[in-house]
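Escalation from tier 1.

The customer reports that the assembly of two entities below gives different structure tokens on two consecutive runs. Tier 1 could not reproduce it. I'm attaching the input and our single run for tier 2 to review.
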Amino acid sequence: MIDPHKLTHLDRLEAESIHIFREVAAEFQHPVMLYSIGKDSSVLLHLLRKAFYPAKPPIPLLHVDTTWKFREMIAFRDSLPQRYGIDVKVHINPDGVRQGISPITHGATVHTDVMKTQALKQALDLYRFDAAIGGARRDEEKSRAKERVFSFRSSGHRWDPKNQRPELWDLYNTRVHQGESVRVFPLSNWTELDIWLYIYRERIEVLPLYFAAERPVVERDGALILVDDERLPLAPGETPQLRSVRFRTLGCYPLTGAIESTASTLEAVIAEMLVARTSERQGRVIDQDPGASMEKKKQEGYF
Amino acid sequence: MDAIATAADTRDQIASYLTQHEHKSLLRFITCGSVDDGKSTLIGRLLHDCQQLFDDQLAALERDSVKHGTQGDAIDFALLVDGLSAEREQGITIDVAYRYFSTERRKFIVADCPGHEQYTRNMATGASTADLAIVLIDARKGVLTQSRRHSYIIALLGVRQVILAVNKMDLVEYRQDVFEQIVADYRQLAEHLGIAKVDCVPMSALTGDQVTRATSTMPWYAGPTLLELLEQADLAGSDAERGFRLPVQWVNRPDSSFRGYAGTVAAGVVRPGMAIATLPSGQQSTVARIVSADGDLDRAGPGQAITLTLSAEIDISRGDVIVEARRPPEVADQFAAHLLWMGDAPLLPGRQYWMKHATRTLGVQISEIKHKIDVNTQDHLPAKRLELNEVAFCNITLSAPIAFEAYADNRTLGAFILIDRQTHATVGCGTLSFALRRASNIHRQLLSIDQAARAAIKGQTPRCLWFTGLSGSGKSTIANLVDRRLHALGNHTYLLDGDNVRHGLNRDLGFTEEDRVENIRRVAEVARLMTDAGLIVLVSFISPYRAERELARSLFPVGEFVEIFVDTPIEICEQRDVKGLYARARAGKLPNFTGIDAPYEIPEAPELRLQTDRSSVEELADGWSRRPSSVRARRYNRRHRSDSESRSRRTRRCRTAPRPGQQLLRAVPTPACGAVGASAYRPSTRSSASTLSRRILLANSENASMPARPLARWIHGGR
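Tier 1 run:
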């Protein structure tokens, strides 16, 4: 017999995340939630609203815009105030814009560093945020598997993976000096499957890009790149083809590979994932850098 | 194929999968053992056999195995969990890695923990949330010291279930006698440590024998495989039957019509109508609603993150615990507790730390180390301090009472962490065993004559003037002269001098770090009693540590404690060397001498700073030879304030060799205008800083020839 008080797996994950949100709101002066529009952010936002119901969340949202996100993502973001009465601050690295940084001309590494990592650090310094909540999960990548829920950053936003604060039980050390900060990951213990099952259970709205549809794509180095706007230069003889594709993960459109799929409903997406043989981040061009690249990027301030 | 029917089928399948998934339980476990025991291979094997490794991850693993692997051409599973580049380079596990997998019956979170002693704190991180531990033993080596240490740490953190996995059976020809000897040895250890349940399985992570599938290699073993043991293990007992406990995390007040108390239920079940009390205050009320975004709940139990409203408002804030009024926990402020020290600097009894307990952070000191415990042998040893990764049984004293339960009964109300007040690092973790009745049995006697009355009869405002500085800096000389001056003015004073007190009250203390801490604690308490008696107390002590000076300050009401930094470069102190102590210290005959081989932590924000190299000691106490103009004084004051701010960033804790004092003092910026001997600043509170400075400098310029006039002014509050 099922003990009525024994929580299900999703209940436990939800309660753990809500506890983390409340701890952030109670203990930090200037917390912020990094909102990146994807499915994990949708789940984060849902949990944020639940944690403080019936009050409005006391934590503002920030989107670091690289200017190369899918158009659908920006439209989704811009509809949030109307749907939930929640404002999203947007930050774009003005230096990067002035220098005309793009993933096309400067490559994935430079683009990500300037428009994402540097931009994020600028925004955190600008608003003097002392806690930044993100949607990273430990099952995504091996250096993330090592990270604390409350992950300390020195005043230069650096992560020292070899000397992390011990983190026992759910007693999170939130003390920082001026200029230091903490990255907080309420979804640390969620897996990709948990995210989708929770979206299903709670009927959370996510972007249509996650569902299969006929979309114009070109194939490059084995990745299917969506021709989202006219900025994507086509090689001689290259013509976009309409194929039934969807995305497992979303980033900058020229750096995010689609997968061939016919899963056009939430149920079908979950069914597809149950038999998947590749990991979610496989579609991220930026992750294909050698060895410990995520660890290095994280040390420098990447989320 | 009929597309509509397929879609409907998929929906049904997913619905039934979700139902099944929903009712899957979750087991969190850790693996203990060194790399050589095959720990990572075991995790790799579990993930692999449970189909939790994706193709691209396997491909990456194969690439990495060629580059960093230790298994020849074969896949090195250790690289799967050792995710940091330093770990891969050194071939060791430094920090916990969390991995996730599931079977048809259960979901698992496995924390792969480092085995090396130097990373014990990281192992504790993993163990604190575990329901169960796999202790891995190399069949060829048996139960080693390391296995004992790991088992002790998991028992300390309350893990009561162990799976003893005897690995590498293939290398001992799958012999039953080898297995049984190890099992017998381990059961003895487990019993000693109070680990209630031990299941044992012979296996080989490399070949997969008995990990996820039974094989014919060990016909003498008919028990479950390792994975079956994981699937069958009992989950942490439900705390639903116990009294309701809710540490308040957040008071939810969107508008004046709603006031909710949010937190995660630590034990018990709550229902609307339940009579509750809030602790430590003890006020009572009744639960009105259990509010959630999905509608009001009719009950909530352990682990749920909820929001309560009450039928009658009482004063509740973050850190309080809402409890079932019928079954409240104890409230106390002194405890016996087990402590695992995780700081790089040693734990010193008497020093103040922060303690985070449930949702409350408060001051704490370790009043006594009863004994430390050798984690390898579990022997009890006497100790005056604790070093990194040491464990002890201690008495601790909190700055305020808390609602608590023993860790064995309630993890949330029995666990705590310690935070360093200056570095903000997490320096310790512990578990409460029981309350000490001392404080609750010794009630403070209310005296009918209070400090104000005692001070009034003396016609003065009580103060504690705390002189700190190096030996030979001139503290005692200045303090003595100020004392005489105040006495001449008709004040009631007393001078507590370091050397004198060490002849009596503190005769039993030496010069080690822990004894210095106790030395200051006692003197601060004596000074407090004396100011309570209405006296002006002058304390002249080297008092080298910031933490203890802050402790002393914390004993006094704001404004009553005046920290005076007698700032003399060590070269000058050494030249003076009135008592010949520096010469002896340099000759190595006087160990732990401040400035030579023991640190002096410069005050970050003293009320007064006296620079004896700018003016003579006598001039400072008796008057000033030159007076700064008011313009120069203001300019000086401005510059000095920014100097002190940048300095507090530059110098944290200075311990240098071979002549530490020199560098340490050189780090102090000296003002360009050298005419001023005394100044005051308090960078943390600008307004009071400027008021203070103005008062001191004003007194200074007006009374340049009056002995010790600024201090006297200070004491008389500007009168």
